[in-house]
Amino acid sequence: MAIGKLTRELHFTEVYKKYKDEHIAIREAMCLKAQFPGFLGGIKDNDLFVGRLDLPAVGITPDEWGPTSFGYYCIEHRLLAEIEDPSLDEDYRQAVKDMLEFWREENTSTKLRRAFPEKMAKELYTDDWMNQSGISFPLYRLCGGYINFDKLMQIGIPGLYDEVERYRQNAERDGRDVKFYEGAKIALDVFVDTCLYFSNMALEMAETAKTKERAEELKLMGNTLKKITQEKPAHLWEAIQLMWLYSLVADVRNLGRMDVYLGDFYVNDLKSGVLTEDQALRYLESLWQLIADRNTRVHGRVIIGGKGRRNEENADKFALLAMEATRRVLEVEPQLSLRFYEGMNPALFEKALDVIGEGRTYPILYNDDVNIKAVEEAFGFCTEVAEQYVPFGCGEYIIDHQSFGTPSGVINLLKALEVTMHNGIDPMTGRKMGLALGRFEDFETFDDLFEAYKKQVEYFVEIMADHEELEYKIAGETAPFLYMSMLYDDCLERGKGMFSGGVRYLGGTLETYGNTNTADSLTAIKKLVYDEKVISKDRLLAALDADFEGYEDIRQLLLDAPKYGNDDDTADEMLLKVHNHVCNVVRNQKHRTNLHSYLVVIINNSANALMGHQASASADGRKSGLYMNNGNAPMSGMDKNGITAMLNSIVKPSTHIHAGAVQNMKFSREMFTTRRAELEALLKTYFQKGGAQAMITVVNRNDLERAMEEPEKYHHIFVRVGGFSARFVELGRDVQLDILHRTLY
Amino acid sequence: MEKVQGTIFDIQRFALHDGPGIRTTVFLKGCPLRCLWCHNPESQAFEPQLSFDKTKCANCFRCVAACPAGAHKIVDGKHAVDYGKCCLNAKCIEACPNRALKIIGRKQSVQEVMDVVVRDIAYYNNSGGGMTISGGEPMSQFRFTLELLKAAKDQGIHTCLDTSGYAPRELFEKVVPYTDLFLYDYKATDDNEHLRLTGVSNRLILDNLDFLYEKGARIILRCPLVKGINDTDEHLKGIAEIGRKYPNLAGIELMAYHNMGYDKYERIGRKPEMEMLPTTDEATKRSWLERLKAFGCDKAMIG
Question: pTM here?
Answer without folding.
Answer: 0.94
